[in-house]
Design goal:
There is one protein chain. With about 120 residues, this protein is an alpha/beta fold. The chain has a six-stranded mixed β-sheet with strand order 2-1-3-5-4-6. The protein is globular, with a radius of gyration of 13 Å. The chain starts with a strand and ends in a 6-residue tail after the last strand.
């Protein structure tokens, strides 16, 4: 298993490193692979395209974490979903739509535990 990370955080501060530190504390030894941290701010369509081009090259048991959400701070739920192309964690805003058009998820759950938000 490995975790891919896609965000619009950029590379000029410590947010990505902090996020990876938290993940290393939760899942020690699991490889973390950046797809990109430079998605245009809040660009859901760009994110969907980047994932669609990258995800097919990852193992089927990879976890793909996405943090690109123009609605951050709203009532929009974070979700986790299982698809033949891996596990997907991120906002329920369309970022996974291109991947799911070729490999639909068989289960989608809302992530409601505040300890992991």
């Amino acid at each position: 298993m490995l975790i891919s990370i896609t965000t619009d955080f950029g590379e000029k501060d410590g947010y990505v490193g902090t996020m990876k530190g938290v993940m290393a504390g939760i899942a020690p030894g699991v490889p973390l692979i950046d797809i990109t941290q430079t998605i245009s701010p809040q660009n859901v369509r760009e994110t969907a395209y980047v994932l669609w081009t990258a995800v097919p090259y990852f193992p089927a048991d990879a976890v793909h974490l996405v943090v690109v959400d123009p609605g951050v701070g709203t009532s929009r739920l974070a979700i986790a979903a299982r698809s033949p192309m891996g596990l997907f964690v991120g906002p329920d805003n369309g970022v996974f739509s291109y991947v799911w058009s070729v490999a639909p998820p068989d289960i989608v759950v809302a992530l409601t535990n505040p300890a992991y938000q």
